[in-house]
Amino acid sequence: MGQESMRTAQTEPEIEGLLSPFLRRKRLEEVMKWLAGNSVLDYGCGRGELLSMMGGGWKYVGIDLNPDFIRFAQRRFPQANFRVLNLEDCQSPDLGKFDCIVAAAIIEHLECPERLLKELSRHLRDGGRLIITTPSPRGRFLLSIGARIGLLNRRVEDTHRSILSAEDLLKLMRACPLQVRSYSTFLLGLNQLLVAEKGS
Length: 200
Hints:
With 200 residues, the protein is α/β, with parallel strands linked by helices. 36% of the residues lie in helices and 24% in strands. The chain has a single domain, classed as 3-Layer(aba) Sandwich (Rossmann fold), CATH 3.40.50.150.
């Protein structure tokens, strides 16, 4: 799938599976355990689900490719900063520096995750955290079956470009370069959580 067709797929109305809301919440619950500091950049923020779990007191910026999601999030959280932006395409505007950057269920949709992760790392403060979730290779078959029977997003097979192993993720962190703080799996090993920090 080319860049333009991928962008189109991600900005069309989402076809939710029966388990999609449950899985999304479980991913974000894992992310929440690692939030620190007082500022968060949420890349692939969707409708602002992470912000709804965070509560007040944060400097928050949410970014998504889908303008419908961003409009919904802006109506729901009018005081928050939401933007339609693709950090893969070009160097981003001055978003500032953040204590935490979240990319939950994002990098599996990219042809070149390294390009995005390097751009995100530019926006981390020294000592800041990059928090990533992504499916594990052992979940590939179940993702495919789940999409076909309507338990998961029906477009998952078309939009998943990079199903990465633990070693793949470690290589990406070395390329950024970021220091891995934690690696774990969740949801019976079907998803991965990686937390990396920017050295001072």
